Amino acid sequence: MLTKDLAICIRTVDYSETSQIVTLFARDAGKISAIAKGSKRPKSAFDGPIELLAHGKVVFTDANKEKLATLTEFQQQPALLSLHGNLFAMYCCLFGAELLSALTDDYDPHPELFDSFVEFLQSVNGLQTTNNERRDILALLILFQLGLLREVGLQPILNYCANCKTKYDVRNTKYEFYFSNFANGLICRDCEASFADKVRLSATVAAALTSLKQIPNSQEKTLTQIEKVMIYHFTGLLGRPPKMAKHILVST
Ligand SMILES: [Zn+2]
Fold first, then answer.
1. The dihedral of CA 60, 5, 40, 243: what is its sign?
2. Phi and psi at residue 197, to the nearest 5°
3. DSSP state of 51
4. What per-residue confidence (pLDDT) applies to 252?
């Protein structure tokens, strides 16, 4: 049976001289693995070798959990081409793809998440080169990451203590706040001793995390600190540091 869908390529592996195995995040089907036979031949049904983060219409057959699907068509709209001059932007997009792949299950559809990832890629692609470019990319990455966690049912608790429910009050800076993987969210000063695994948040980071509307307007320094918290959290969720994490923080 032929299935038509929209998809983004989130992983590629060379299978032979001429073929690739790709992981696609498809809008209606969810994450699937498929073989693209002959994709590396000069003339193929895929407009050339399948590129990471390419997105567009796909047709595949034999989709089921037990074996690889066969990709028969992919009208690729490459996302990376325009990013080649901007390594940081490219790393952030690849980080998004890595997290998407790690946190979703095969054949578990998330159409909203698909849309938000396409929007994220397009927004990063569409950024003008300005002094604030890096800050803007980080803000987009953080909002995408938080949306991803919400979509897969792992939304962290960010506006009150995950343990005792004390509300975080921006004006009351006498409260210190921490972020804990184990608590899946913020924890307050009174509770932090019960959580061995935590990072301390500066007042500005806690304020931005508790009011996400502030993120697009936050300073690059604050966003870098938030991204560190996100990477700490993803490391806990995955049980290992995400592969792309070192590229995001090394260059900040
Ligand atoms: Zn508490």
1. negative
2. -100, 100
3. P
4. 45
Query: How far is residue 154's CA from residue 240's CA, in Å, rounded to a whole number?
Result: 17
pLDDT tens digits along 103-155: 999 999 999 999 999 999 989 888 765 556 889 999 999 999 999 999 999 99
CA 189 – ligand 1 centroid, Å: 7
Global confidence as pTM? 0.92
- Count how many Cα atoms sit within 13 Å of the Cα of residue 92 in the half-sphere of its side chain: 31
Residues, Cβ < 5 Å to ion ligand 1: 161, 163-164, 166, 188, 191
Quote the distance between the C-alpha of residue 160 and its chain's center: 24
Residue type at 238? Answer: L
Per-residue b/e over 152-161, b at no fewer than 16 CB within 10 Å? beeebbbebb
Report the greatest alpha carbon distance in the chain: 65
Average pLDDT of the segment spanning 15-20: 95
> Cα of 242 to ligand 1 centre, how many Å?
29
Strands (E), the chain: 2-14, 20-26, 30-36, 55-61, 69-74, 177-180, 185-188, 199-201
Q: Could you write out the DSSP letters of every residue in 65-123? A: TTB-EEEEEE--B-SSGGGTT-HHHHHHHHHHHHHHHHHS-BT---HHHHHHHHHHHHH
Chain-centre distance for alpha carbon 18? 30
**142 neighbors 230 (Cβ within 8 angstroms):** yes
Please, is 59 exposed, middle or buried when counting C-beta atoms within 10 Å of its C-beta (0-12, 13-18, 19+)?
middle
